[in-house]
Specification:
By secondary structure, the chain is α/β, with parallel strands linked by helices. The chain has eleven helices and eight strands. It has one domain: NAD(P)-binding Rossmann-like Domain (Rossmann fold, 3-Layer(aba) Sandwich), CATH 3.40.50.720. The chain has an eight-stranded mixed beta sheet with strand order 3-2-1-4-5-6-7-8, sandwiched between helices. Keywords: Oxidoreductase.
């Protein structure tokens, strides 16, 4: 059941790929879309296409995330949907200006901080918070709260898979802490999509995603965005289950065993709040 009331929808990572596709689809359906991206030119271009506002932020700098949250809070009387879509598999192990491993920060800590800073508005709006996760959580992820930066076992794929696992744990814990106050949450795997995924990495995925064959066999960005669009336009309980992780349009049956660990989700939340300097609530 699709809503007929236009929503205010914030999409990060919306200057390209499935974020841009979702922005176009949701705008065409009558919603007001805030386009968030790293590239000023590409972000402004998508915003012009969809008739929405654009906001520029680099998630490798948490000061940018704090500024973004303040700008979004000032710009909108409510936020009905926050789509934490920015992220990806990155390159060699590097530290951000904030001192965190880059994959961890871009994929998990930055969206965690953005959500936390906007939480009062999201609660007042009875919002949905959507995480773009990945099957990589099951294939490569292993969370060690004593080594979030993978100092002992870094590979680009392990860091990415673990960050996508953290997206799922964040989703379940957000549901546990705040669903009874009105906030809903979901995470999803968009599938293999013909985007710039892996372009900044040495991942073995990169040749596929950059090849002509890859462009032929991978799904279109619009197909990859379809679940995000569904979560944004339908109500939890009617169109989807809050607190769940989806693959192929359904609640995933096979997940990383750590994704079902409620105590790990709680401890990850508290540790993340400590690292980004917000109240764990």
């Amino acid at each position: 059941m699709h809503t007929t009331t236009p929503k205010i929808i914030v999409i990060t990572g919306a200057s390209d790929g499935i974020g841009a596709a979702a922005a176009r689809l949701l705008s065409a359906a009558g919603h007001r879309v805030a386009v968030v991206g790293r590239s000023p030119e590409k972000t402004a271009h998508v915003a012009r296409e969809v008739g929405g506002e654009h906001f520029v932020a680099d998630f490798t700098n948490l000061a940018d995330v704090r500024r973004l949250a303040a700008e979004l809070d000032a710009a909108y009387p409510r936020i009905d949907v926050l789509a934490n879509n920015a992220g990806g598999i990155l390159g060699d192990r590097t530290r951000t200006v904030d001192g965190h491993e880059r994959t961890l920060q871009v994929n998990h800590l930055a969206p965690f901080l953005l959500t936390s800073l906007l939480l009062d508005k999201l609660l007042a709006s009875r919002a949905a918070v959507i995480q773009t996760s990945s099957v990589g959580a099951r294939l490569f992820g292993h969370l060690d709260l004593d080594d979030l930066d993978h100092d002992r076992d870094f590979t680009a794929h392990r860091a990415y898979g673990t960050a996508k696992l953290e997206n799922i744990l964040f989703t379940t814990e957000l549901h546990r802490r705040f669903h009874d106050q009105g906030v809903s949450s979901a995470a999803f795997h968009p599938g293999g999509v013909a985007t710039n995924f892996g372009a900044e990495s040495t991942s073995f995925f990169r040749p596929l995603y950059q090849s002509r064959i890859g462009k032929m066999v991978l799904a279109t960005p619009e197909k990859g965005a379809s679940q995000l669009v569904r979560f944004a336009q339908t109500e939890p309980g009617a169109g989807w289950q809050s607190g769940a992780y989806y693959e192929g349009g359904r609640v995933a049956r096979r997940v990383n065993p750590q994704a079902r660990d409620a105590d790990l989700a709680r401890r990850l939340w508290d540790r993340s709040a400590e690292l980004v300097g917000v109240d764990a609530r």
